[in-house]
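Box 3.1. Reading complex inputs
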Amino acid sequence: MEPQQKLQADIALIGLAVMGQNLILNMNDHGFTVVAYNRTASKVDDFLNNEAKGTKIIGAHSVEEMVSKLKRPRRVMMLVKAGQAVDEFIEQLIPHLEPGDIIIDGGNSLFEDTNRRVKYCESKGLLYVGTGVSGGEEGARRGPSIMPGGSSEAWPYVKEIFQAVSAKVDGNVPCCDWVGEGGAGHYVKMIHNGIEYGDMQLICEAYNIMKNGLGMSADEMHDVFGEWNTGELDSYLIEITRDILAKKDDDGLPLIDKILDTAGQKGTGKWTVINSQDLGIPITLMAEAVYSRCVSALKDERVKASKKLKGPRPTLSTIANNPEKKKQFINDIRDALYASKIVSYAQGYMLMRAAAKEYGWNLNYGGIALMWRGGCIIRSRFLGKIKDAYDNNPKLSNLLLDDYFRAEIKRSQKGWRNIVATSAKKGIPVPAFATALSFFDQYRSAVLPANLLQAQRDYFGAHTYERTDKPRGEFFHTNWTGHGGSTSSSTYNV
Ligand code: 2AM
């Protein structure tokens, strides 16, 4: 290694899978000197001799050598398999680092692990950053959305690199800002993925009504999604849906019609829903999106059931055969998608607020919308409006109460209700549209039937209830049958 390269490197990156390699190349493009290291050292040489040829990227063949090449405070970023590999590298790094040095985990770690690692590294005098990196391989190379959290003293030292390599929107605004303490960065990445599940399910429901209800061809739907992508739904996922619908197989027929309808999942949506259950926050749309993938996976059962369980035919021929009505109905589908999407994001933000309270984070809500605005899978024009809402009122308690979104839902509501009602009548499944509407109607209800629920709980389990004519916090029990006794349950679980 040439002597002038000694102590010159800005950052080290461990993990030379495609994401790691691409992020290194991206950092190099932005003028940073990166030391590349990997457990299997032969990958370092492969990388230097191929993708990294002709760049300023430096290779290292041991942790010690890697660390020796870094400027202080040292910045070491890991992009390795989540779980044990991260803990192992932390242990390998600690003996070679000094107080104030920074370990960064850019992998898909669970936020609870990051919470623990931040505390552990800080106890050793080190700083620790757990960052969500979204946008896949292409994003890593051209500009991902980067969501860093952890030891806040580390932010000034990683800000320049992260913001330089991140995606940019509206000219040159970086899709990277400090998220918050502990595992907040990885948490926000997890919520991003839950929202992504929801967005995808909403698009699938819109597609299904057009395809099976209105009998539209892939080319016709391609045009509709193309048009939607010029309006308030303008987003990466609508854009790729437009393009997917235009793709032809070798025989010239739409490829989409040949793809089996069973969805896979890697589990990040599931983790979001599990966390929502822990925190008692209704992210009903994301939950329906996860469960819809589960239902889709029951292909064989569904094929059998389709021959036995009878219901209405899903065709909407009266609408489909009247061009005026059809156009209006397609607009209603768009409105259903849009209003449901507002509900989904409102629910995602409700969960983040609850998490901030539970885990003691000071989350930057507008910043989060900005980070998702570009680079990642859920990037959209819509997120700019969420950023505006939190800029207008950083203490906004619910996105549904923001003036802009309130007006948007008001405008879309008629179409949304028409789509959910028509689908119910015709037996077209719309779990996400419907749950969003039910949630909306529950959320705007000052009174819900939980009075009866409390009565039932008190009847069979003496769980007690509060009364509308008494102050909150006073609990009552009734002897409903006359022979149940008047002893109430000792524990009261909300
Ligand atoms: P490898 O090339 O030596 O397998 C994605 O899998 C990245 O994580 C790769 O760089 C891989 O290194 C690394 N990785 C996976 N499991 C690991 C482990 N247990 N210890 C160290 N690195 C690991």
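In summary: The radius of gyration is 26 Å.
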